[in-house]
Design a protein that fits this description.
Number of helices: 11
Shape: globular
Helix content: over 70%
Oligomer: single chain
Radius of gyration: 22 Å
Strand content: under 5%
C-alpha cells in the first residue's frame, strides 16, 4: 500500500512568478473556456444534424468528447495550482489525475487509429463501405476504444497504488505516473515492465493500423483520379496533422520524464510538457471544423439561420 505517512505530493516544477500568477490564471482560464466552447459546439452540431450522422463524424464526436475529458482532468487542477503559493496535491487526487490524463492519451491514439481505418475503407473500398462500417460497428468501435483504454490503465494504476513511497516531490506541473513510480523504495520491476508494455499498447499498437491505412490510401490516391486525390487530402489531412501534433507532445513528455533535461531552459520544459494537453484540444476542433466541408457548411448554415432569425424577430 501507499506509505501511510504520505498524504500529499509536492509539485516541484512551478516557478515563483509573483503577481504574474493572476495573468497566467486569466490566460489559462481563457484557453480552457475556448476548448470547452469549441469542442462542445462541434459535438452539438454533429449530434443535432442528421446529415452528419455518418461513421466519420461519430468518430469525431468521440474525439471531441475525449478532448473535453482530458482538459477537465487537467485545467481545473492547473488553475488551482497557479493561484496557490504551496503546490501540493493529495495522494488520492494525484492518482485520479494520472488516471484521467493517461486514459485521455490512450483514447486519443486509439480514436485516431479507428478514424484512419474508417478512411481506408471509405477511400479504398467505397462500394463496400456502407456494408463494412455500419452504425452498430461504429458504436462497438467507440465503446471498445474507451473500455480498452480504461481497463488497460486500471491495471497500471493498481500496480502503482501498492507501492511503498519514500518521497513526495514530483518534478512536474501535474501528477505523472512514471515520476510517482520513481519515488518508490519497494521493488518496481513489475511496474517498469508493465509500464513499457503499456507504452507499446498505447502508442505502437494504434500506430500500426494508422500506418497501414495511410499507406493503402496513398497507393490508391497515386493510381486514382484527381478527384479521388482531392477527397483523400481533404479528409485525411486533419487526421494526419492531429496525429503528428499529438505524437510530438507525448514524445517530449515521455523523454522528459525518463532522461535528464536540465540543460533545456525550465520555461521551454514547462511549455512542452503542457503541449499535448493544451494544443491538441485547441487544434482538433479548428482543423476538423474548417477542413471538413460538411461540418463547415453545417456551422455556416446554423450561424446564418440564427442571424436571420434574430433579424426577423427584431423586425
Amino acid at each position: 500500500m501507499v506509505n501511510s505517512t504520505l498524504s500529499y505530493f509536492i509539485l516541484g516544477a512551478y516557478l515563483h512568478v509573483g503577481t504574474l500568477k493572476y495573468l497566467y490564471f486569466m490566460i489559462t482560464s481563457l484557453l480552457y473556456f475556448v476548448i470547452i466552447i469549441a469542442n462542445s459546439s462541434l459535438i452539438v452540431v454533429i449530434c443535432l444534424n442528421r446529415s452528419l450522422h455518418e461513421p466519420m463524424f461519430l468518430f469525431l464526436c468521440s474525439l471531441f468528447v475525449n478532448e473535453l475529458y482530458g482538459s477537465t482532468g487537467f485545467f481545473p487542477f492547473l488553475l488551482v495550482q497557479i493561484l496557490s503559493d504551496i503546490h501540493t496535491v493529495s495522494v488520492p487526487f494525484c492518482f485520479l489525475q494520472i488516471f484521467s490524463l493517461y486514459t485521455y492519451v490512450n483514447v486519443e491514439f486509439c480514436n485516431l487509429a479507428v478514424m484512419s481505418y474508417d478512411r481506408y475503407l471509405a477511400i479504398c473500398y467505397p462500394l463496400q463501405y456502407n456494408t463494412c462500417m455500419t452504425f452498430n460497428k461504429v458504436f462497438l468501435f467507440i465503446i471498445f476504444v474507451w473500455l480498452y483504454s480504461f481497463v488497460k490503465f486500471l491495471i497500471t494504476l493498481s500496480l502503482n497504488i501498492r507501492l511503498t513511497l519514500c518521497g513526495n516531490t514530483i518534478n512536474s506541473l501535474y501528477c505523472h505516473n512514471y515520476l510517482v513510480v520513481k519515488l518508490a523504495c519497494s521493488d518496481t520491476k513489475v511496474n517498469n515492465i508493465y509500464g513499457l508494455f503499456g507504452v507499446v499498447l498505447t502508442i505502437v499498437v494504434p500506430l500500426l493500423p494508422i500506418l497501414f491505412s495511410y499507406m493503402k490510401i496513398l497507393k490508391v490516391c497515386f493510381s486514382g483520379s484527381k478527384q479521388m486525390r482531392q477527397k483523400a487530402v481533404s479528409t485525411c489531412t486533419p487526421q494526419l496533422a492531429s496525429l503528428l501534433n499529438f505524437s510530438f507532445g507525448c514524445s517530449f513528455e515521455i523523454l522528459q520524464s525518463r532522461f535528464d533535461m536540465t540543460s533545456v531552459p525550465s520555461v521551454v520544459r514547462i511549455i512542452l510538457s503542457l503541449y499535448f494537453v493544451i494544443l491538441q484540444p485547441l487544434l482538433n476542433p479548428v482543423m476538423f471544423g474548417l477542413q471538413m466541408s460538411k461540418i463547415r457548411n453545417t456551422c455556416k448554415h446554423l450561424f446564418c439561420y440564427k442571424v436571420l432569425s434574430g433579424h426577423t424577430d427584431q423586425t
